[in-house]
Write a structure and sequence with these properties.
The complex is a heterodimer. Chain A is of the alpha/beta class. Chain A is built from 25 helices and ten strands. The two termini of chain A are 37 Å apart. The chains are: A alpha/beta, B mainly alpha. Chain A: It comes from Pseudonocardia nematodicida.
Chain lengths: 592, 313
């Protein structure tokens, strides 16, 4: 399972990430500030009687639209009441309304979501249908219409809003629970005799609690805005001060009291912004280091020019096509530390040879291969070392120069055939486009070439496959298409990253045969990344065994099978012979 | 494709009937209140009963709904309790105002948001952070408050635009532009913010795909990959997001119309709600529901058409 993951990225797995959520949240100053402001707003509202300088309802004729700074710090409103006192008291109903909306939405959504996902069946169907029905309605229009029935009772309106928001919780919980329901640890809990209720409480609610917090904060923010809007258009409770009601008053006095619309607007804006930032903070904390790495621009290649290294020029034999020397690959984490995943790898691929790069998942073999292509995932960069193709250091090329190398001089065969074809474009288009650009072929010439390439890689009806979309062909066929694409611009070097791992066993052998045939036909150098010694025995001339970012042993294939030196190689070989069918090492004739 | 379209169209009609039935039940269930609200606090029970009977409110709800539905299908949404004008006539005057406001805002917002979202996703760095800060700010300020600030600054302070009112486009194009500019800004702002964010994450999702790496490994220029492959694959979520914004804007328009005194659906709904003018309220709900259902249908079809997997089946 983990073998299918691309490369050994340093990011911590989910269990470790989850442990640090609270810690990471507390280290995010923006999120902590937002949480503090929300708390402060709630406290001010609760203790409004103590905090407010005066009464929110007493009108004084002499203070109508009074300017700020006098007896009333923020001025007087259209009815001569103290704006500051009203602002403080208005938080009460506003926050209460938002709270009500969240509680109603959460109660309905979480319960129905749990039931629908856990027990499925007709309830799931009906609830899903109802959720779709409710979620398409424009909220404010519905609430305005219902005013005809509800009357000026804002809390009832907010409860109705809660019903209208509940599908968000329903969908969230339902999808999360369905995702978790069939996890092995839930199965294990069921097998060990826990009842449904305990499983839900202990395992499933645990998983969804953080997304629920995020959604609650988001909905609270939305509810405050909706409530203010209702009050603004006069559908609120006129007797109680609210931020929206204050804006209504400001609107009525727009020409005479222009100081009136700023305080309630800022109160709403700041409170809502803090709820949103709170949600973002929890989300970022959940995502962990990943999002930190994302902030880096992807041009890591040029950002970190390779440090000159004497070893590179030491001995470069004439037949060397690819020479990797002292390669160090690192990933930046959120705190700007660098985690090294490849620690100084030396590797050589000669023309006409297939070199295997073997190791368990996480050993850094895919990272090494992607460094050669200059296509490390975001956050990854070549920290030092050289990647020389025909003596030219690829790590020093600009992105534009590198594009002329890719495809034309290095071909790439990926691991997972289906995810490496663009699902939205026909296969023919995906083959023709690189040839037109890299080789300057006309459309018809490129099409003819693509057809003959497809025929060469063993596809019997090239025109039909070319007019198909990726989802219409099988995985084995897709891998043949990708191999055709890799050799379409006549590269001298092929990088094949686990080219058979995702395929059926019978197809695996065919694909390996194809790669070997093409390699002989075209005299290609091939770097074959694999975790499978069976594949190595099948096609490789030489093998480099990689472990924890280092090459521990590099020798001719037959030697390594006959007499493995490194204990790790012996372990790997042992596990292969027991676990998977092993084909005999190659005969002499293969090596030129 | 035709089968798919037919199935979706039937589902849309069913949804429409369900929404109107639900709305009708909610709005008409308290028939006693309707007559009382119209007559005022001092009305006697006899007067209330008489008015209820006159308006047909004393009949069973199902009968009332079916009666309403049959008329509605024939294009008759009843008569306003308050003014006596046919509801359809009021809607026909009000709908173009709201639709032009919402459509123009949506087009403006979508164009800006798509550019911002793509730039933020591709460039990252300070552009990305800028868009995120802008998004939080724009989402936090209620659109009607932004409208108030715009009126206060540009209409009252600087007098660049009229503060209120609406000039139809067929009367005067410049008049229409000057009356609709500030409302469009107020309505588009928060939409730009949230849409840009979602388009950003849609583009980032696609940029992380294996096939983008493979296309790069084939030596295709970054710009070509972005313009063709990334945009094409990010289009379905983007279309969905924009369509949801359209529905959100219908709600937002209710408040914006109030700020700028635009004679649209929203102000019609607010007045009708305050006066318990139920046929008008119901009419606005129906129009909103039809718009929502039609937009969703169009989006479903668009997304299906974009996705070859669904298109070819």
């Amino acid at each position: 399972m983990s073998d299918l993951l691309p490369g050994g990225e340093p990011a911590a797995g989910p269990p470790a990430a989850r442990r640090g959520v609270v810690h990471r949240f507390l280290r995010n100053p923006l999120a902590v500030t937002a949480a503090a402001v929300v708390t402060a707003v709630v406290l001010v509202a609760v203790f409004a009687d103590v905090v407010a300088p005066g009464s929110p309802v007493v009108s004084r004729l002499d203070m109508v639209n009074a300017a700020p700074g006098g007896e009333y710090l923020l001025g007087g409103d259209g009815a001569g009441r103290d704006v500051l006192s009203r602002l403080v008291h208005a938080g009460r109903l506003t926050l209460l309304g938002a709270f009500l909306t969240v509680v109603v939405a959460m109660s309905i959504g979480v319960v129905t979501g749990l039931v629908a996902a856990y027990f499925a069946g007709w309830f799931d169907t009906v609830a899903g249908w109802a959720a779709n029905l409710v979620i398409v309605l424009p909220g404010t229009i519905v609430l305005v219409s219902l005013f005809a029935v509800i009357g000026p009772n804002i809390l009832v309106s907010m409860a109705v809003l809660g019903i209208m928001f509940s599908p968000n919780f329903f969908r969230l919980v339902r999808n999360q629970v369905i995702a978790v329901k069939n996890e092995l640890y839930v199965d294990a809990a069921r097998v060990s005799g826990l009842g449904d209720a305990r499983i839900i409480a202990r395992h499933i609610l645990y998983v969804v609690r953080a997304p629920i917090i995020i959604l609650s904060a988001t909905i609270a923010a939305a509810a405050i805005v909706v409530q203010a809007g209702l009050e603004f258009i006069g559908l609120g409770d006129p007797a109680t001060p609210t931020w929206g009601g204050m804006l209504q008053d400001a609107f009525a006095n727009l020409y005479t009291g222009r100081h009136l619309f700023l305080p309630p607007g800022l109160a709403i804006g700041i409170t809502v912004a803090c709820f949103i930032l709170l949600a973002n903070g929890v989300r970022d904390a959940l995502e962990g280091d990943e999002s930190g790495a994302r902030r880096r621009p992807p041009r890591a290649r040029t950002a970190a020019p390779a440090v000159p290294d004497d070893r590179a020029t030491e001995h470069v034999p004439d037949d060397a096509l690819l020479t990797v020397s002292g390669l160090v690959v690192g990933y930046r984490t959120r705190s700007d530390e660098v985690t090294e995943v490849v620690h100084g790898v030396d590797l050589r691929v000669e023309r006409g040879r297939i070199v295997g790069l073997v190791g368990e998942s996480g050993s850094g073999k895919t990272q090494t291969a992607l460094s050669v292509l200059g296509l490390l995932p975001e956050g990854g960069e070549i920290r030092s070392g050289h990647v020389a193709l025909d003596g030219e250091d690829l790590a020093r090329l600009s992105p534009r120069q590198m594009r002329n190398v890719l495809g034309r001089r290095i071909g790439y065969i990926p691991q997972e055939p289906m995810s490496n074809l663009d699902p939205s474009f026909r296969i023919g288009w995906q083959l023709v486009q690189p040839m037109r650009r890299a080789r300057g072929l006309s459309d018809s010439a490129a099409r003819a070439e693509a057809e003959s390439l497809l025929r060469r890689v063993g596809i019997t009806d090239p025109p039909r496959v070319m007019s198909s979309y990726p989802h219409q062909i099988s995985g084995g066929m897709a891998q043949r298409v990708l191999i055709a694409g890799a050799i379409s611009c006549n590269p001298a070097l092929l990088i094949a990253d686990e080219p058979t791992t995702a395929l059926d066993v019978t197809v695996q052998a065919e694909i390996l045969d194809l790669i070997r045939d093409l390699q002989r036909e075209r005299g290609l150098g091939v770097l074959l990344v694999t975790h499978n010694f069976g594949v190595v025995a099948d096609v490789c001339d030489r093998v480099a065994v990689m472990r924890s970012g280092r090459i521990v042993e590099e020798r001719a294939t037959r030697d390594i099978f006959a007499d493995p030196h490194h204990p790790y190689t012996i372990t790997l070989l042992g596990s292969t012979i027991e676990g998977a069918p092993l084909r005999a090492p190659l005969d002499e004739e293969v090596a030129p | 494709m035709l089968v798919f379209f037919t199935r979706r169209a039937v589902a849309a009609v069913v949804l429409l009937v369900a929404i109107t039935a639900l709305a009708f039940t909610l709005v008409y269930s308290s028939n006693n209140n309707i007559a009382r609200n119209i007559l005022g606090e001092l009305a006697t029970q006899e007067q209330i009963d008489a008015l209820s009977a006159e308006l047909g409110l004393d009949r069973p709800l199902v009968v009332q709904y079916l009666d309403w539905l049959v008329s509605a299908v024939q294009g008759d949404l009843g008569v306003s309790f308050v003014t006596g004008t046919p509801v359809v006539d009021s809607l026909a005057i009000r709908l173009p105002v709201t639709l032009s406001l919402v459509t123009v805002s949506l087009v403006v917002a979508a164009l800006i948001a798509i550019v911002l979202g793509i730039v933020a996703a591709v460039r990252r760095g300070w552009v990305d952070r800028g868009v995120q800060i802008f998004s939080v700010a724009a989402e936090s300020l209620p659109n009607f408050w932004v409208g108030l600030a715009l009126v206060s600054t540009f209409a009252i302070g600087l007098a660049w635009f009229p503060a209120t009112g609406y000039v139809p486009i067929d009367q005067s194009v410049t008049g229409w532009v000057s009356t609709i500019t500030l409302p469009v800004i107020a309505l588009a702002l928060s939409c730009i913010a949230s849409t840009a964010q979602q388009i950003r994450s849609a583009v980032i999702d696609v940029l992380k795909k294996d096939y983008v790496r493979t296309l790069r490994a084939r030596g295709l220029p970054e710009g070509a990959i972005l313009a063709r492959n990334v945009l094409r694959n990010a289009a379905p979520p983007a279309v969905t997001v924009v369509s949801l914004q359209f529905i959100g804007m219908l709600s937002g328009a209710v408040l914006i119309e109030r700020v700028f005194a635009l004679p649209g659906l929203g102000s019609l709904a607010v007045n009708a709600a305050i006066q318990s003018d139920i046929p008008v309220v119901m009419g606005v709900l129906v129009v909103a529901a039809v718009i929502v259902v039609v937009v969703n249908l169009a989006v479903d079809l668009a997304v299906t058409w974009i996705n070859p997997k669904a298109r070819i089946q």
